[in-house]
Amino acid sequence: MPKLPVISAQVLIRVLLKIGFVIISQRGSHIKLRREVGRKVQMVIVPNHKILKPGTLRNGILKAIDLSVDELNQLLKK
What sections of the sequence does the record tag as coiled-coil (predicted)? Predict the structure, then answer.
């Protein structure tokens, strides 16, 4: 199993923008992003923190957008 990277919210948002997400709004320190895949709309809220907690990254964000840890690592290398 690939290791989950320790990244900031800004790095994650840059990766999400690369794969088609668009920033819709921000309320306080939470940034809302959205992407349309066919008829399916994926929405995710990223807390704007310097370091995202592993549980938030894996179970909250990656799970919501159907992105694996391996795919995230590949996108970070680009």
Answer: none
Ranges under pLDDT 50 in the chain: none
Strand partners, 43: 34
Q: What's the pLDDT score for residue 48?
A: 96
Question: Judging by beta carbons within 10 Å of its beta carbon (0-12, 13-18, 19+), is residue 5 exposed, middle or buried?
Answer: middle
Look at residues 11, 20, 28, 26 and name the one whose alpha carbon lies nearest to residue 77: 11
pLDDT tens sequence across 54-76: 999 999 999 999 999 999 999 99
Q: Please, what is the angle between helix 69-77 and helix 9-18, to 10°?
A: 90
- Give the other-Cβ count within 10 Å of 31's Cβ: 20
- Phi then psi for residue 30, to 5 deg, are -110, 125
